[in-house]
Amino acid sequence: MTCPAPQKHLTTKRRFLLLCASIAALYPIVRFIGYSIPRKPRIVEIASPLPAGGFHLGPDFVLFDTGTDAWALSRKCTHLGCTVNFHEKDNLLECPCHQSRFSKEGLVLHGPAKKPLPRYKVERLKDNGGYIVII
């Protein structure tokens, strides 16, 4: 005499394992598709103008103004994603995690980072001299 209960238990266990394997296989695909979908740009307004040679340190970017040109750089290190800090006296950005260094233009001065910091579009406000940074 055989008992049907163990067979049902094995079927449930197989279904569970199949479900886990399917999720594990689909996760990287979903992550990849998520990166390929463009995200909506975020607009940050800086109301006050900067002096020539000045900078504004935001949570996601650093804004520089030479008086004739203004640009913003991402504060996310291209090595492992740590938040870089701007050292005004040395005129460079440095990652506290692995000491990658970047110029004010975002170029790599010292690794381990290999890629420059991404630039964000900056527009000057005509009415008050402030800026709009499009992230």
From TrEMBL:
Lineage top rank: taxon: Bacteria
Keywords attached to this entry: 2Fe-2S, Disulfide bond, Iron, Iron-sulfur, Membrane, Metal-binding, Transmembrane, Transmembrane helix
Pfam families in the cross-refs: Rieske
Rieske domain residues: 42-131
Needed co-factor(s): [2Fe-2S] cluster
Molecular function terms, GO-annotated: 2 iron, 2 sulfur cluster binding; metal ion binding
Signal peptide: none
InterPro entries named in the record: Rieske_2Fe-2S, Rieske_2Fe-2S_sf, Rieske_Fe-S_prot, Rieske_Fe-S_prot_C
GO cellular component, one term: membrane
TM spans (from-to): 16-34
Designated name of the protein: Rieske Fe-S protein
Species this chain originates from: Desulfocapsa sulfexigens (strain DSM 10523 / SB164P1)
Source lineage: Bacteria, Pseudomonadati, Thermodesulfobacteriota, Desulfobulbia, Desulfobulbales
